[in-house]
Structure formats: C-alpha cells, structure tokens
Design the sequence.
C-alpha cells in the first residue's frame, strides 16, 4: 500500500503503466465491490444509479473546463465519436496526427464511402495542415510517446479558419491542466489516468457547434429528456443538451467513476502535473533526453521492455519502444528502479 494526495493505493512497486490501465484508490475498489455484492443479492434499484452518473458527468466537465450540460456519457471513446464522425459532411477533409490512436482516427476513416478524406500528418505540422481542413482530430497527449498537442495553435486555427477541433483527452485528463471549452468536441476514456472502471467514457460538445447538431445514432432510453418517463413508445423525446448522445450507463462502472472523479477534479492540478511530469522528466534527464513536460516517456532501446520487466517495472511496449507512465501514486523509488534498469 502507498499513500498519495490523501488517498491509499494498492499499487505494486515499479508500476509505471497507467497509460494502459490506471489503478484506483482503495476506497474506489471497495465501492465497486460493494455495488457488485448488491447486484449479487438482488439489491439494485436502477434509478439510484442516476446520482453517480450525474456526479461523474459533472466531475469530468470540471476536469476539462466545460459545463456538465455539455457532457454525454458512453462506454468508450470510439462509440461516442461515431455519431460525430457520421455528421461530417460528404467530401469533408479531416486531418489526424500520424500514428494517432485508432479510436480517434477510425470513426472518421470509415466515412470514406461518403468521400470523407482523412490525412495523416506529422504531429509538428498538424496545426499548419489543420488550417486547410474541415476537421482536425487529435489526442491532447499521444498514447505512443506522450507528445503534447499544440492546443494554443489549434485554438487559433479554430478561431481564424473555422476548422472543427476534436480532442481526445484519454491520456491527458487527470494529470494535465485542461481548459477546453473552446473545442468542438472533447472526449475521453476513464480507465487510464482517470482511474475509473473500463466501460466509462465522456464526451463534451460545445453548444452551437455543428457537432451539437449531429444525429445521435445510438440514442436509446437514456438519451431521453426524462429517461424514466421515455422508455416506451414514440416519438423519441431526446434531451435538449448533450445528454441526447448518452448511451445506457454501465451501472457499476459509473459507481466507481463517481467515487474517484470528484476527488481528481478537486486536486491542485498544477501540483499533480508537477509531480507526474517531474518524475517523467527526471527519467528523461537520466537517459540523456530533453524535458517534455509530459507524464509519458517513450524509450526506443530495443531491449528496454525486457530490462524493465527483469527489474520488476511494469511498462508497455508501444510504437517500437517501451512506454513508461508516471501518475500521482508513483514515487522516486519507482523512478530509481526504472533508471537502474535502463542505464
């Protein structure tokens, strides 16, 4: 057990794999287990889960800098982005970063039958190329190597050229300070840095944007203005706000998210960023790499994963290298273990 930022975590020494799976505080695990026990004994009353859904929705909104009414819930990033990509006009041009995580690029790429053109560009040219595109879709922090997108540049492109901006915060929210109310769409999965159960994701849609008018192709009962009053019959009386994009919640998963997201949203995010990126940059310095201000480090040595594994360090093999990720529960001991393995 270890304690960080006021919470207790059952994190093993050398766990540097949050970019794959985040480890929740112990009390979050206990809340999920209690929810499962209640399910196992017939103790569920479905409407009671509306409260944790609302709590998690509001906390995600706070983490990315938008209003709760702008946020929809879903099980995964690609599911939420599907209707947004389907609403892109026929023949539209979309740019994505080369090597972008496929949950961001695939929803747009499969629209090619309508003439939608998706072009991969080098990350350092993304802002330049976005100026001539209809849509730019990119992860705020790249999964493969931890590169942080030029958000100021993308915001300027949005203002000057009207390019629609779609941002994935899956590898950013929870450690990187974010204020993204200017973007058309902000989507993120919960099971990494947000320390929530897999099966939780959220999407913020800017009011007045084209995305807000997209057809909610996955609409079901939970997308109704009054979900418990709209479970039978037609017409579909959908919510007037972003809840029209809601999919039916995974109840127990939302219980876990409601336990952890308000805590994360209440932390001093500058202190969290300094802790996470500070450890990561210390590893970069030890390996002769320049600082990046990112919590993710990619080490290109071909035997890096084998050396880390032998030293008891949990990391991931990504994009031809070893990916290490430092979150708020990591310590200098984890850093030293990684440095010893790699040097």
Sequence:
């Amino acid at each position: 057990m270890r304690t960080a930022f006021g919470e207790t975590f059952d994190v093993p020494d050398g766990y540097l794999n949050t970019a794959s799976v985040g480890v929740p505080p112990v009390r979050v695990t206990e809340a999920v287990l209690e929810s499962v026990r209640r399910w196992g004994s017939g103790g569920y009353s479905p409407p009671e889960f509306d409260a944790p859904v609302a709590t998690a929705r509001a906390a995600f909104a706070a983490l990315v800098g938008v209003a709760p009414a702008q946020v929809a819930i879903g099980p995964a990033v690609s599911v939420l982005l599907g209707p947004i990509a389907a609403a892109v006009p026929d023949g539209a041009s979309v740019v994505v970063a080369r090597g972008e995580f496929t949950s961001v690029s695939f929803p747009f790429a499969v629209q090619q039958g309508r003439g939608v053109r998706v072009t991969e560009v080098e990350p350092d040219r993304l802002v330049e190329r976005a100026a001539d595109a209809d849509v730019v879709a990119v992860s705020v922090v790249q999964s493969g190597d931890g590169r942080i997108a030029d958000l100021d540049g993308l915001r300027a492109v949005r203002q000057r050229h009207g390019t629609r901006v779609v941002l994935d915060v899956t590898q950013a929210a929870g450690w990187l300070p974010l204020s993204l109310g200017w973007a058309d769409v902000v989507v993120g999965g919960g099971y990494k840095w947000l320390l929530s159960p897999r099966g939780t994701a959220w999407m913020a849609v800017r009011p007045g944007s084209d995305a807000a008018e997209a057809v909610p192709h996955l609409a079901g009962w939970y997308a109704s203005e009054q979900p418990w009053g709209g479970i039978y019959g037609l017409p579909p009386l959908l919510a007037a706000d972003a809840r029209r994009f809601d999919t039916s919640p995974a109840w127990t998963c939302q219980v876990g998210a409601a336990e952890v997201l308000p805590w994360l949203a209440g932390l001093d995010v500058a202190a969290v960023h300094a802790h996470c990126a500070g450890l990561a940059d210390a590893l970069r310095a030890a390996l002769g790499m320049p600082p990046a201000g990112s919590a993710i480090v990619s080490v290109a040595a071909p035997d890096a994963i084998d050396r880390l594994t032998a030293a008891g360090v949990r990391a991931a093999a990504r994009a031809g290298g070893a990916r290490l990720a430092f979150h708020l529960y990591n310590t200098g001991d984890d850093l030293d273990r990684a440095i010893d393995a790699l040097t």
In short: The domain at 46-265 is CATH 3.40.640.10 (Aspartate Aminotransferase; domain 2). The chain has two domains: 2-27+268-342, 46-265. The mean pLDDT is 97.
